[in-house]
Amino acid sequence: MLSVLLAGLLSQTAPPVSARQQGVPIGRGDKVPTVVLSAPSGGWTVDRMLRIEGTVSDPTVDPVVVSINGDRYLMRTQGGRFSRKFPAASGKNVVTVMATNKGGTARTQATSYAQVPPVPLKAILTSDTDGVYTDLHIYEPTDASSAGDTLDVKAMAHVYWANTESPSGGTFFLNEQGGDFDQPAYGPYLYIHRAPPKGVYLVATNYWPSGDKAHTVATLNLALFEGTPGEVRRRVRIPLATPGTTRVLAWVNILGDGQAEVYVPSADPKPKGEGWPTNLEEALKELQQSGDGGGDGEGEGGY
């Protein structure tokens, strides 16, 4: 009897892992989908925001993969349609949209040239898992926070989903998908500042999973002075697993005269150059202890 029971247990297969934990889900169709971009249509534009809009023939493809000048995002679809505005880069904007199902991957591309001033500071945050919140939080320098060689993080201006405009002009764009401004999943969460004051900025994410989603990978795309000789671009990918955890993705130091530096704690040595506060680690501990930095003010940690 024991041998029969053992044989039965060994013959059982493990429960299948949900597709959302295996990367970007693919559509269920067997025929390679067709992707049509209705916007951008190519040519020149003077709009500061670039609309990416179109259709995919297989309505089960959700999301589509979008690349803008090489930066990758995931965009939700609804009934085979997708639409979202992004801050336009000054000059060339190469937009590629890819849709994958069981039949294969289709892609389409359009190039739009934007006659707009360069955006000095742009941050776009996405995640690779459906059904989670990876809220973007930006802390801007103020006169009170940047006095001397130390940083008073509690005096910084906090820009996030509940406070979308900063006193100095920073703008947070809510995660709008099909008219809904409170969807979990891939994002993107957007922040731009068209005239950022000099000083140190903190870019962080607060993680809130739902259901059986245990973890995700957050991706931050930073662009500073995009389209200018002083352009700086960084991509930060970081795993998130603990609910309520706030993680620092990057520090940004706007130096003035079209120059900026980026410090990624998970990848870079601690900065010691001119303009960097001497108490970054202490400032983070102070923020953590204050309880500021979370999406809804609940348990924070994991800096």
Layout of strands and helices, then pairs:
Blueprint: H1 2-11, E1 35-39, E2 43-45, E3 49-56, E4 64-68, E5 71-75, E6 81-87, E7 91-101, E8 104-114, E9 121-127, E10 132-140, E11 157-159, E12 171-173, E13 189-193, E14 199-209, E15 216-224, E16 232-240, E17 246-256, E18 259-263, H2 280-290
Parallel strand pairs: 2-8
Antiparallel strand pairs: 1-3, 3-6, 4-5, 4-7, 7-8, 9-13, 9-15, 10-11, 10-14, 12-13, 14-17, 15-16, 17-18
Which features characterize this protein?
303 residues; 18 strands; 7% helix; 42% strand; disordered N terminus; disordered C terminus
Cα Rg:
21 Å
Strand content: 35-45%
Topology as a string of helices (H) and strands (E): HEEEEEEEEEEEEEEEEEEH
DSSP summary: helix tally: 2
The low-pLDDT segments are 1-22, 294-303
Number of strands: 18
**What is the molecular shape?**
globular
Largest sheet: 5 strands, mixed
What is the multimeric organization of the chains shown? single chain
Helix content: under 10%
Q: Give the distance, in angstroms, between the N- and C-terminal Cα atoms.
A: 54 Å
